[in-house]
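seq as requested:
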Amino acid sequence: MAYVFPVYNEAGNIELLHRTVCHVTGALADRYDFTFTYVDDGSKDDSASCLQALADADHRVTVIELARNFGHQTAVTAGLDLVDADAVIIMDSDLQDPPQVSLELITRWQQGYEVVYAQRRSRRDTTFKKFTASVFYWVLRKIASVDIPRDTGDFRLLDRKVVEELRKFRERDRFLRGLVSYIGFRQTGVLFDRDERHAGTTGYPLSKMLRLAADGLLGFSVTPLRLISRLGYGISLLSFLGILYTAGVKVLAPETAVPGWAFTAIAMFFLGGVQITMQGVLGSYIGRTYAEALGRPLYTVSSVRTAVDQSTPVKTVLDRSVQSSDRSLNR
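struct tokens:
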């Protein structure tokens, strides 16, 4: 049984997180061998030294240090590429995901489910974040081509065969919860109450949240492209009605007709704005296609560390990443 923790500037949380997870998993230590993989996603604080201290103190800890910040979803991918276990639990490192809930995930896995996701019953976030999250999941469920459970993050348990299938998906703009839903298998949820961040600041400011939302919407739906045509039809209909109205005024009440320079100017600006917006939507899809066509590795690894007296070659995780990329290109 393996845990994967993406880490970005979490020096204030790492020690407590590991101590709590070790305490929680102690109840099942006689049944499972637990390992803990921490992926340092280019942290700028003391996270790297804290993680090395964990590796020195606990032989079950492995630290993957990425060469720079590649983003949360890619950091999780790097961890999944390395681990070798019957099941993998993905958890954030800010202690908002209660480690105790992972035992419930394991229980449902023992019942035969291959994906067990933690579904938020409540969350201690700002009103703005709660509102935007609600809007995002509502839109996602309306337009996505797969059923992505509402109010779920990446906190979940994946069976070994799900992880193996997930390794085949190497797109750069990753939305892991969508990929897991796309893969299928038997899935179920466990409700939990999300806690506040223990220390530090969020690694997901508004800009990154918007990017993740775009990855989810664009990666699992072509509805935005279809909306372009529908909007065009709507504007054409409005233009046709405007022509009928103008013709009617000219025929039935010519004395009320006013030169339409203002209307013409507004219409031109409106249509210009719509065209630019639609070009932006098209550009987003084209940009994603271009990034995939380059075929670059998802990440680069600086080191894979365990205790000081042990050594794990970086080549292990790099080879798995390259092999997965090759499979993707050859499909």
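The radius of gyration is 25 Å.
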